[in-house]
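Example record

One chain of 720 residues, shown exactly as stored in the release files.
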Amino acid sequence: MRNIPAHGRLLIVDDDLMVRMLASESLRHAGFEVSEADCGEQALEMFEEQDFDLLLLDVMMPGIDGYTVCQRLRQHERGKWLPIVMLTGLNDSDSIEQAYLSGATDFITKPINWLLLTQRVRYGLRASHAIAEVTRSQQSLAHAQRLARMGSWEWSLSDARFACSDELRQLFGSDWKLAGAATVELFLSMVRESDRAAVNAARQALMINGQPYQISYGFCRPDGALREVFEQAEAVRDGSGRIVKIEGFTQDISERVEAQQRIEHLALHDGLTGLANRQFFAQLAEVELERARREKSLCAILHLDIDHFKSFNDALGDAVGDQLLCAVAKRLSVSVRGADLLALNPPMRAAEMVSRIDGDAFTVLILEVRVPDQAAMIAERLQQAIARPLSVDGHEVVLTASVGIAVFPRDADSVEALSRHAEQALYVAKAAGPSACRFFDEEMNAAASRKLHLENELRQAIAENALRLYFQPKVDAASGRLAGAEALVRWEHPQHGLLGPGQFIPLAEESGLIVALGEWVLATAARHLRQWTDAGLEPLRLSINLASPSFLQENITEKCCDAVRCAGVSPQQLILELTESLLVVDADNTIARLNELRARGFALSLDDFGTGFSSLSYLKRFPLDELKIDRSFVADVTKGGKDAAIALSIIELGRQFGMHVVAEGVETHAQAGFLLAHGCRLQQGYLFSAPLPPDRFEALLRNGDRFNPCLPVPTRHPTS
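Predicted structure tokens for this chain:
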């Protein structure tokens, strides 16, 4: 048998220019040769002049409609077995029946799913080619039938005898009751109920009018297995023209149908959890919003996000994180009561009203809400379901979720706006703390607009060099000598004045600008070091903060080296501060990058040690030069208790690992003295100096100013 061709010549017949254009583009991209006709008359003329392998034929057109065109093509010798796929926006049984009575091979309803169109065309061409090969080569018929999972049959109308090939018996069961003594009723009883009308109409048209047909339907084997089949048949006439027999081929296309279903499922569902994806959820929600408009009822969209899920994922690994997401998806699906949802027609599973739209974010569509508070009650039930302990891969995990709620039509009149407002409400809920729930209101919308505006301004400020560096001295508390400084970024906003990092760093992290901001700080700090050297001032070491995304860049070493090379300073003058969250993300690659930076001369400092994922294994494995005691421990260090114990433990760890220890946020002589008495000489805070603008810090360097040394306080037990 010849190889089945991968491509073919197609004719698209549709009076809608946009449909023709989109279909042609999709099919040409898939490798097909495509011709177009805008009416039935033109299609018939083109068919007389050219050969086509398949027709896509619109039903409703000016002049000759699709049904008539199909009938005329079937009367032509070359059109007898030509695959004809009807394109129709009429999704009712009468239209489908009329399409098959006219000789259609298949039909596709509008709007067309372009993802599946090429697959339908390929399978149509494949089936047509297989049938043609069988009819052309009687000698290889049995072999062809086995390869194509196809069997031949004939039905004698005079004595109602039905005969079929061995291949057909194997496909549909060796004790197939139709073999030998068939009746229309017996055959139809074995056809899937939803397909019986179309199959009966096609066979009646063949027996009465001799109209050949091609049709797909479901068939139940004697063993109860349901198979999908493709069938085509034609009438055999005697010398007087009377129909005496029907001959046909039936092919098992179950695998093809299952493949189509898998493709459709993947296109509309989340690959990990099996829930509806964003696209499918929007389609479902659009139908329900339209119903709610007609019935003047309320519905709500809940936007859920797992609190601190990234921390769980980083600590336990992606595989365990995926298991957690699947468990959450299952709990959400089970917890949404059937009474909360109105099934669509055809009926949908309740799980399809819950979607995973991104990462650890889910949405739930709640229908027939009587009052908005009912949506909050459902949200609380979902939160309780998520909060039940989970045992995954030997770990017991307790998750919480924050929820944002938007109610239709109070908060928005479209799916897109309603989803956006629910997400904005979620941001407010997350800011309120874990497991919070908030409704959307206009102030949230205004806040989101202000946030977007501020993000654009920040992007512009980075590009136009509208940021400034301030410098906070690091002091040797025992001598009062300047031991270095930390560079801190400020934003000179044209309307809001000088903004501190707490007012825009979170925005930079959320918007993805944090890497660009870090690169700006690095380059600007290096330039200041060069300026001070050129001014003849004594060199010092400058600390700069780089966020975790900066260190996760594969080319971070090259970027840092380029910055100091362009400025003409030494890497030894820079201390790169990183946070603990970086240490649990892709540890092996992180260690490799940090080793590269250290080998080039950069020092590395661990900022805010003890506030995150602290572990002694980090200090042993990671190439660190400095630990910084967070200000939260320094504030009450003189009172003893846990804060003092943690601070002193960090000092001792630094000593044991050969690292410098710097205390942040020192504001009183008592704090400075206590830390100095326990071996922490390097300190920074408002006791010594606030962060200074460049001119004032340069004056401090130029004058060689010293700070008042501190006296150590008597040592006492940290928990006393």
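Notes: The two ends are 92 Å apart (CA to CA).
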